[in-house]
Amino acid sequence: MKAVLTVIGKDKVGIIAGVSQKLATLNINILDVSQTIMEDYFTMMMLLALDSNSDFDYIREELHQLGQDLGVKISIQNQEIFDTMHKL
């Protein structure tokens, strides 16, 4: 399964490292990534590959907790749902 992850928040050291390290711990592969700084705000979007037997709710909660620890908002969605929402 593929998923889309977004990260938004005030820029600071360690955001990319923290997110990529957590994804590695969760055995999630990063397929593509785009990130930029808009004034003082960090924004990143990733396309991820998850195992079909991954516990999506557990992954979402782990990333939510990481976002709180890093002071950013992290969201993850199934790619099919993301694509459908953005075709309207």
Tell me what the structure shows.
The chain is 38% helix and 39% strand. The chain is built from three helices and four strands; from the N terminus they run βαββαβα. Helix 1 packs antiparallel against helix 2.
Fold blueprint:
Blueprint (H helix, E strand, L loop, with lengths): L1 E9 L4 H11 L3 E10 L2 E9 L6 H15 L2 E6 H7 L3
Antiparallel strand pairs: 1-3, 1-4, 2-3
Order of helices and strands: EHEEHEH
- The CA-CA distance between the termini, in Å, is 22 Å
Helical amount: 25-40%
Number of discrete helical segments: 3
The Rg value, from CA coordinates, equals 13 Å
Strand arrangement in the largest pleated sheet: 2-3-1-4
Secondary structure: number of strands: 4
Structural class: alpha+beta
Gross morphology: globular
How large is the share of residues in beta strands?
A: 35-45%
Uncertain spans: none
Label this structure with key terms.
4 strands; 4-stranded antiparallel sheet; 88 residues; alpha+beta; 39% strand; 38% helix; 3 helices
